[in-house]
Amino acid sequence: MLPRTTAIELMHAAQLSPDRSIAGVLGLRDGLAEGLTPGQADSAESLAHACDQAEQAGGVFALYYSQPAAAAEPHDLPQALREAATNRPLLIVSLNTKGVLETRAWRWCEGQYIEQTLTAIEPPTAA
User: Fold this and answer.
1) Closest C-alpha among 71, 105, 80, 72 to residue 2
2) What is the reported pTM?
3) How far is CA 80 from CA 30, 46, 76, in A?
4) What digits encode the pLDDT tens for the residues 4-18?
């Protein structure tokens, strides 16, 4: 599950780079996605480093990637990103929309990407 605040943070990061793609790792804390660790979509070393940082902080929820001029679908992804996302979910943010940005989740399975259900939730409140 993706807390709404984290979804907004991800989409905002994509909006800050409207002319180029961004990539990185979305961390995991207490079973929920939290915290963006930037990486370079075309660098296996950069993505591995971002994954290591997220693992040390609590885990990896998914990799993320923005597409300024394409739909939120896994077409023409950089090789390093495709390889890093082989065993992890991949969130793709599309800036190629009018109004609300689109974010979709994908998982590599048996030689193809399968779309996954992505649910935004209200984050739990502190007691």
Assistant:
1) 105
2) 0.92
3) 28, 9, 12
4) 999 999 999 999 999
